Amino acid sequence: MEAKLIIGGVAVMGLVFAALGAALMMSQVRFRRRAQVATGVITGLRPARGRRGGDPEPISQRGWYPTVRFTTANGTGIEAESRLATSPAPGLGGGQGDGSGQRVTVRYDPANPGRFTTAETAQTAGYVATAFVILGGLVFAVAAVLLLAVAG
Fold first, then answer.
1. pLDDT higher than 60, residue 98
2. What is the number of other CB atoms lying within 10 angstroms of the CB of residue 27?
3. Residue 56 scores a pLDDT above 70
4. Are 46 and 65 in contact (CB under 8 A)?
5. Taking the domains of the chain in order of start, what are their residue ranges?
6. What gap in Å lies between CA 26 and CA 72, rounded to an integer?
7. Residues paired with residue 81 on neighbouring β-strands, in sequence order
8. Which of 49, 50, 146, 148 is deepest in the core (most CB within 10 A)?
9. From CA 12, how far away is CA 144, in angstroms rounded?
10. pLDDT band, very low/low/confident/very high, at 32 (cuts 50, 70, 90)
11. What pLDDT was estimated at residue 95?
């Protein structure tokens, strides 16, 4: 009985992860439908993780939050940091080495232009959503097979 509960809980967790991934994918599709496109310029990068003690050097090169400057279709200038991190840092290996000055395509919400994605951040979010769906579905499938084996 206890094994069935544990396996059932794992199956539910798999479904929850798959549902979160699917919801993220749907959110991305809705955003792309209403988004406007502009050309932006990276003005800076902030590491997603810093060392303890306030050291600004990153622990790893796993993620960077780009700050991007762009102009909306109605002529409003925007400079904002992406809410999504990207990896590797956009622009590394070119330009000034920190991504500054690199041109990027920006998709922004016309109702809230500070909400935007670059091609790199959208790709990272897409990978995360896909991983959630696949891994969550896989966990659910394995748990369901185990549950059937234990029940039978």
1. no
2. 12
3. no
4. yes
5. 2-151
6. 24
7. 67
8. 146
9. 10
10. very high
11. 41
- Between CA 22 and CA 30 the distance in angstroms is 12
pLDDT of residue 59: 52
> Which candidate, 88, 2, 97, 3, places its Cα nearest to that of 48?
88
- Which residues sit opposite 68 in a β-bridge? 42, 80
Return the amino acid letter for 131. Answer: A
Whether 40 contacts 63, CB under 8 Å: no
DSSP 8-state code for residue 56: -
Both tokens of 142, joined, read: 């394995």
d(CA 106, CA 40): 6
Dihedral of CA 125/83/34/105: which sign?
negative
Mean model confidence pLDDT for the chain: 85
Between 119-151 and 2-34, two packed helices, what is the crossing angle to 10 degrees? 160
* Sheet with strand 64-71: strands edge to edge: 77-81, 64-71, 36-47, 103-109, 112-118
Write down the pLDDT at residue 81: 93
